[in-house]
Amino acid sequence: MKAHGTVHKYGDNVDTDVIIPARYLNTANHAELASHCMEDIDKDFVSKVKKGDVMVGGANFGCGSSREHAPIAIKESGISVVIAKTFARIFYRNAINIGLAILECSEASEKIACGDDVEVDFDTGLITNHTKGETYKAQPFPPFIQEIITKGGLLKSISEN
Fold first, then answer.
1. Does an H or E element contain 8, and which?
2. pLDDT tens-digit map of 92-107
3. Do the beta carbons of residue 104 and residue 86 sit within 8 Å?
4. Distances (CA, A) of 127 to 4, 93, 143, 148, 155
5. What's the whole-number average pLDDT of the chain?
6. pLDDT tens profile 108-155
């Protein structure tokens, strides 16, 4: 399993209220959530993001509330993977549950810049920054988590078995 796209980069402590502001939580429509993703810190995100793009954050990405709306908004916006130094634990679990690929890698988080062309190999954990000619190593997902992500989330994974 691989991902490849242009990077959208954010800093430390990006919380769920920034990823999807609370004022939009009155809908369960995933496309509607995605249309407001990151708008409070990057008003142009939804017009710039393309299917397959990569989001990079700093430490404690996804802190805040336990809402699943945040990883849903990111995934529905077209982001194929989020790379960060660290993730808030509840965000990490919610992302896996809904089928959003996420990887922790301090070096990648620090060295990758907004606009870089990045490829991720989920089988090996290798992150390749084509723009800078660098590679970084993240811990690859175990096969059962790769299966959940490939099938689009935990519930879809269970229903197919």
1. strand 2-9
2. 999 999 999 999 999 9
3. yes
4. 10, 21, 18, 20, 28
5. 93
6. 999 999 999 999 999 999 999 999 999 999 999 888 988 999 898 887
Q: Which are the contacts of 71, defined by CB distance < 8 A and separation ≥ 6?
A: 62, 91, 94, 95, 98, 100
CA-to-CA distance for 25 and 23, rounded, in angstroms? Answer: 6
Edge-first strand listing for the sheet containing 126-129: 101-104, 81-84, 54-57, 2-9, 117-121, 126-129, 134-137
Which residue type occupies 127?
A: I
Q: How many residues does the chain have?
A: 161
Extract the runs of DSSP E, i.e. beta strands, from 74-129. 81-84, 101-104, 117-121, 126-129
Pairing of strands 54-57, 81-84: parallel
